[in-house]
Amino acid sequence: MSNLDLPVVYDGAIDPSDRQSYKAIGASPAGTEFVYLLSNSTGGLLYVGITWNPFVRWTYHATKKPWWPEVSHARVLQCDDDRHARRVETWVIHNLVPAHNIHQKRRVAA
């Protein structure tokens, strides 16, 4: 995988304080998964994750993650299934290095 040429479900601004607005994206179709990339106002990639329902997942982030108020943009991509989504997520983490993903990051040689 060398790019993110996947169907785009949503690509735009989000208000991290307006949890009800996340519902507008909807849930993924049965059997598919979404990969989401969250960025800050300067375009810095903050986090990438997998979900079938952004409202549920982002509501969790809003209550538990100290970086959530920095989020201003979301890109949501549709994947064929969970296995595909995990491959995409791993590629993004290894190649685009989101600031707040702590699992799967490549270790930097000392």
Structural notes for this entry:
The protein has helices at residues 54-64, 82-96, and strands at 8-13, 33-39, 45-51, 73-79. The protein is globular and about 30 Å long. The N and C termini lie far apart (28 Å). The longest helix is centred in the last third of the chain and has 15 residues, at 82-96. It has a four-stranded antiparallel β-sheet with strand order 1-4-2-3, with helices on one face. It has a single domain, classed as GIY-YIG endonuclease, CATH 3.40.1440. The mean pLDDT is 91. The chain has 110 residues and is an alpha+beta fold. A hairpin with a 5-residue loop joins strand 2 (33-39) and strand 3 (45-51).
**End-to-end separation:** 28 Å
- Count of individual helical segments: 2
- Shape field: globular
β-sheet strand percentage: 15-25%
Uncertain runs with pLDDT below 50, 5 residues or more? none
Number of domain modules: 1
* Helix-strand sequence: EEEHEH
Task: Briefly note the CATH topology name.
Answer: GIY-YIG endonuclease
What structural class do you assign from the helix and strand content? Answer: alpha+beta
Largest sheet: 4 strands, antiparallel
Helix content: 10-25%
> Strand tally, please?
4
What's the overall average pLDDT, rounded? 91
Which CATH architecture is right? Answer: 3-Layer(aba) Sandwich
